[in-house]
Amino acid sequence: MKNRTIIGIICIVLALVVTFGVAPLVSRMDSNKVNIVRITRNVSQGHAVTENDVEIAEVGNYNLPSDVIRKKEDVVGKFAATDLKAGDYLFPSKMTDSSDNANDVFRTLKGDKQAISITIRSFAGGLSGKLQNGDIVQLVVYQNNADEAIVPAELTYLKVITTTTSEGIDRDELTVNEDGTYELPSTVTLLVNQKQAKLLVQYENSGRIHADLVYRGDEATAQKYLDAQEAYFKALSETETSEGSSESNVNNGGDDVISRANDIINGRVPSYVYDKEESADE
User: Which of 132, 183, 254, 263 could form a disulfide with 269 if both were Cys (CB 3.0 to 4.6 A apart)?
Assistant: First the structure.
């Protein structure tokens, strides 16, 4: 009987603690509301966020990440760095000042870079329809006359501007069918220089091209791959000026491009200037 009485008293004390201690604390946490920006409808990657796409929502501050965006002016006019879904909270990592929308990229072209499309000849050749705007790809070329596959050094790192269906619809404008499917792309449009454009036309007409995904992610890292590719062209130009070059040197240079890009991305080369003597010393 005494044990039952003691247990009963303990239960009563615990109930009082919960009622007058824990419950008010939880209530105060819940009542501590803050305003945050929330997406009201789906926004595809690369599209600008408008006033109609967002709302100010009052939510509890408990466990709310400190970097959640709280002001509309920090969002409206910026671009979605990833697909945004209705109800999403917004963070700086989900927004970007630049766009991967094809038309926006086209407007940045000033002559040193061009946009060119190549045909996706098979489901596998276009990464099974999974290429996205802004992806960094390398192109694997199967040469019919040589019966071999190569990764030309000039085509080691290229930026995907967009993929396009046979009806002329770009990836960022695709709509999903009622059964959840969507039309597969027929071409991929790439950001290239003049030499790359000529090679692409040559390889498209003499063999088959497969796109191999190298990197998908933040713009700063993607640019490092492109910088490594441009550095290869700088070295190639210097070699052609001083010694001349051969096709074999060009095709076998892909390993150098990959190696130096890895150095940059892993922080081993603070500022990249392609120089064969310095590379040998490293």
Answer: 263
What would you report as the CA-atom Rg of the chain, rounded to the nearest whole angstrom? 27
Q: What per-residue string of b and e applies to 215-244 under the rule 16 or more CB within 10 Å gives b?
A: beeeeeebebbbbbbbbbbebbeeeeeeee
Give me the phi and psi of 214, to 5 degrees please.
Answer: -105, -45
138-192 pLDDT tens trace? 999 998 887 889 999 899 999 999 999 999 999 878 887 888 788 999 999 999 9
> SS3 of 100, please?
coil
- Residue 34 · residue 59 · CB < 8 Å: yes
The size of the chain, in residues, is 282
- Decide: helix, strand or coil at residue 209: strand
Highest mean pLDDT among 189-193, 203-207, 214-218: 189-193
> 3-state DSSP call for residue 267?
coil
Give Cα separations from 39 to 55, 68, 84, 96, 156 (angstroms).
6, 12, 7, 15, 38
DSSP string, 60-122: E-TT--TT----GGGTTT-EESS-B-TT-B--GGGEESS---HHHHHTT--SSSEEEEEE--S
Domains of the chain: 31-96 (3.90.1210.10), 102-281 (no CATH)
Q: Which two tokens stand for residue 81?
A: 């760095």
Determine phi and psi for 16, rounding to 5 degrees.
-65, -40
Nearest-angstrom CA–CA distance, 214 and 269: 20
Helices and strands, number each (H, E), in the chain = 8, 10
* Structure tokens, 148: 């071999």
Question: What is the bridge-based pairing of β-strands 136-143 and 54-60?
Answer: unpaired
Distance CA 91, CA 89 (A): 7
